[in-house]
Amino acid sequence: MSNRTKFNRNTLGLVIFLHLDLTMFKSTQGPLNEYLNVRRSDFPDDFLFGASTSAAQIEGSTKSGGKGPSAWDQFIREFPGCNMATQGGQIGISHVAQYFEPYSNTSLDEEASKRAIDFELGWFMEPLVRGDYPESMRRLVKDRLPVFTAEEKELVKGSFDFIAISYYSSRYAKDIPTTPNAAPVSYMVDSNVNVTVEKDGVLIGPNAGGSYTEKSNDNIPISQTLKDDIRIDFVQKHLYQTQTAIKNGVNVKGYFYYSLIDSFEWGEGYTVRYGLYHVDFKNLTRSPKESAKWYHDFIKGRAVAKAMSKDGGMGDDDVELAAEKDSAFRRAARWCGT
């Protein structure tokens, strides 16, 4: 056998990359406001905390577009011979995965929600853990889905040290009736699921424009922009649910907030801001928001409970995360045997 990591369903580690967008679902776990008591000491000593960025969104080419060398560029120049073997590093993979809530309580929509997860997360996780694609994909995609040889199954199964789950908002999943013998249209519709963020005209969670992800607005004074108590409140609740999941047996190894700084958010460009640090897109000045200071103190074990101000926007029922029950990383934990 090769030296690659062999999968052990009791030791698979999850690393969470949190993208603040629409809220996840309301939690039914724990007393109201208990999340305010979450502390660094509630997590294992070796638990990893951090903040992440996307190189493609904030860096670009080393020598063009006005960008200078990054820390990574410098590392490659100074240590060209470094690799995983010499550094004792690990191999992992980050998957984007939303949680899909059934649009209704019908069995068809419940199955649709499971299919949606299979087609988004299971598509990659099932081969890594079990050596084959999800059964629902096999049934619907049929011979358009590749078949692994016995050697390929053995090669891919367990070929990682950790799995990272990167997710934005939850979605509703509604079943689309199957048309027998219909010609395939696109892999985008193979799951036969209608995905939406609203039901009966009501969004699945608070609109991002007024919650954890600020809309860019140059007319708002910088002093006001840096006050983001609602982001602190959201992160506290997420950390509380994360440590609750750990207590219940999910092997979560790290938490990385996205994003460290305001950046270019793909289709939304510079119109939204996810960062712990505010970036003036005109002169690139970076200023720490209150959430950056709070998160720093939390990791150092100095953070104190910080409740939302009454005029901060939303109440507890709006933004409680369901990491223990409903969230994407709890769903991902099914591949860990938990």
UniProtKB/TrEMBL annotation:
Superkingdom, natural source: Eukaryota
Record SUPFAM superfamilies: (Trans)glycosidases
Keyword Signal: yes
InterPro entries in the cross-refs: GH (IPR017853), Glyco_hydro_1 (IPR001360)
Gene3D superfamilies named in the record: Glycosidases (3.20.20.80)
Keyword Signal attached: yes
Signal sequence extent: 1-30
Residue ranges of coiled coil: none
Family: Belongs to the glycosyl hydrolase 1 family.
Protein name: Beta-glucosidase
Organism: Hibiscus sabdariffa
Lineage: Eukaryota, Viridiplantae, Streptophyta, Embryophyta, Tracheophyta
